[in-house]
Amino acid sequence: MHIRYALWPVLLVAAASGAAAEESCGMRAVGLLADGKTKELAALFANQSEVVEPLQRMVESLGKVTSVQEESTARFAQHKRISIQSKDLPPSYKYQGYWINARSETLGALQFHIARAPESACGLLALHMDTAQ
After folding, report:
1. Of the candidates 29, 31, 55, the residue with the CA atom closest to the CA atom of residue 115
2. Contact in structure between 128 and 110 (CB atoms under 8 Å)
3. What is the DSSP letter of 113?
4. Where are the beta strands (DSSP E) in 2-105?
C-alpha cells in the first residue's frame, strides 16, 4: 500500500516532464524556419515542392530569429502579411491554429500564424508571417 503512494510523486513528475518536453506543431514549424531547415519545413506541407523556394526566401529575409514564444492573441492591430500555403486551399477551411511571436534580426517584432490540418499531427495548410504595418 505504501509503495503505491510512494510512486505517485514519481509518476506525476515524469508526466509533467514529458508534457513540458513536447512542443506544439506551431513551435516545431517556427523552429525549423528559424534554423533555416526549409526542406524539413516544406515536408510538412502537402505540396512540398512548391513551397521550398518561398520558404527559403522567407528565411533569407528574416536573418537571425530569437525570442520565439507561443501566444494566444494577435500581436498587431494592423499588419503586413506574407503567406505560404498548401495548393488549392478554399477561402475558408477548418484548421488548428497556432500564434507564435518572435523577433527577427532584420524585420523586428513579428508573429507567425500556423494552420495545421486537424486530422494530422503536424501537416501544415498555411504559414503566415505578420509584421507591423
Report:
1. 29
2. no
3. E
4. 65-71, 79-85, 96-104
Residues 127 and 124: their CA atoms lie apart, in Å, by 7
Cell of 14: 515524469
- Residue in the structure block whose three cell numbers are 475558408: 92
Residues in Cβ contact with 85 at an 8 Å cutoff, skipping those fewer than 6 apart: 115, 125, 126, 127
User: CB 121: neighbour CB atoms within 10 A?
Assistant: 9
Query: What is the identity of the amino acid at 37?
Result: K
Q: Rounded CA gap, 86 and 41, in Å? A: 12
Describe the strand order of the beta sheet including 79-85 as a list of residue ranges: 65-71, 96-104, 108-116, 124-132, 79-85
Helix axes 25-34, 48-62, angle to 10 degrees: 60
In angstroms, rounded to a whole number, what is the distance separating the alpha carbons of residues 47 and 87? Answer: 6
Mean pLDDT by 10 residues, the chain (133 residues): 48 42 90 97 95 96 96 94 90 93 97 96 96 91
